[in-house]
Amino acid sequence: MSDVAIREVDVSAYFITNFTITDSDEYERFVAKAIPLIEAHNGRLLVADDSVVVIEGRNQDGRVVVIEFPSLAEADAWRSSDAYRAASEIRKASTDTHSMFIVDGFDPTA
Description:
Elements: E1 13-21, H1 24-40, E2 44-49, E3 63-69, H2 72-79, H3 82-94, E4 95-104
Antiparallel strand pairs: 1-3, 1-4, 2-3
Helix pairs in contact: 1-3
């Protein structure tokens, strides 16, 4: 059972993470498994960048990834799927995760 609260009105949701890759070969193995799972949940990889420009505050070194999903429910279904959980074990072993979260998009008409 998921711990994500699902809103009544669906707007895009964004999975955002910042991490350092510690084993690039294993991380590439994770990516090969993760991309089809993202697509299966109607997700779209928007950002995967190692060259983050910090405007204010502090940033951990490493990669920032942003994935857009059509809704919070779809993002949560992806994150909590058995297939992604299995793939995430490879990610956990090949990265040092600094932060990871899912946020709702903004619906200006709500």
